[in-house]
Write a structure and sequence with these properties.
heterodimer; A: 112 residues; mainly beta; 4-stranded antiparallel beta sheet; 11 strands; 0% helix; globular; B: 114 residues; 6-stranded mixed beta sheet; 57% strand
């Protein structure tokens, strides 16, 4: 069975500090991978998606970047955090050729 | 791109009654409409979905209806229980393998009073 793991579970970071959030999918070959962001009480905003290793498409510019260094790994990062980066970051996957999304457990970020 | 409107934003019902959430979309090419349930502090979980070749789908106390002509779809929860209290999100996507074009509604906070 497929598993999706996000890390860290939660972080408190200072404005201007760097950030790296990770996501690993096991049990599925070449999944489509996604990063979503959710403000407290807000909707789900798609940030990035990747169909294959090394290729990442940006959906919304929020001073964040994403990379897919391995087939089963998706990384979200920034060099300098802003207060507005606070929220819930969700990694998701779908099968190639399908559009049903399955979300990971999420990483909660508080920027102070 | 797609725009999805979701109403109501807050819904409060008595246990045992039904609850309905409505969504509208703009892109006539959209053909996949999932619904997600999100409990406080947790990730969204897919509860039911419908594709454009159907008008109605039902599973475990959930009914989704799709009106392509009106570009409207809805979720109906029958015999609500306190455990149904959560945020619910609708979404719309066009085409096969278009998960990267899944657009979410603004969410409905459902509270079921015992």
């Amino acid at each position: 069975a497929q598993t999706i793991h996000q890390w860290p579970v939660a972080e408190i970071k200072a404005v201007g500090s760097p950030l790296s959030l990770g996501c690993t999918i096991k049990g599925k070959s070449s999944p489509n991978l996604y990063w979503y962001w959710q403000a407290t009480g807000g909707t789900l905003q798609q940030l990035f998606y990747s169909i294959t290793v090394g290729q990442v498409e940006s959906v919304v510019q929020l001073n964040l970047s994403a990379s897919r260094p391995k087939d089963d790994q998706f990384i979200l990062s920034t060099e300098k955090l802003l207060l507005s980066h606070s929220g819930f970051y969700l990694c998701a996957w779908s099968l190639p050729g399908e559009n049903t999304l399955y979300f990971g457990e999420g990483s909660r970020l508080i920027v102070v | 791109g797609e725009q999805v409107e979701q109403l109501p934003s807050i819904l409060r019902v008595q246990e045992g009654s039904s609850a309905s959430i409505n969504c509208t979309y703009e892109n006539s090419a959209s053909n996949y409409f999932p619904w997600y349930k999100q409990e406080p502090g947790e990730n969204p979980k897919l509860i039911i979905d419908i594709r454009s070749n159907m008008e109605r789908k039902q599973t475990q106390g959930l009914i989704v209806l799709l009106d392509k002509k009106a570009k409207r779809f809805s979720l109906h929860i029958t015999d609500t229980q306190p455990g149904d209290s959560a945020m619910y999100f609708c979404a719309a996507s066009e085409g096969k393998n278009m998960g990267y074009k899944l657009t979410f509604g603004t969410g409905t906070s459902l509270l079921v009073d015992p």
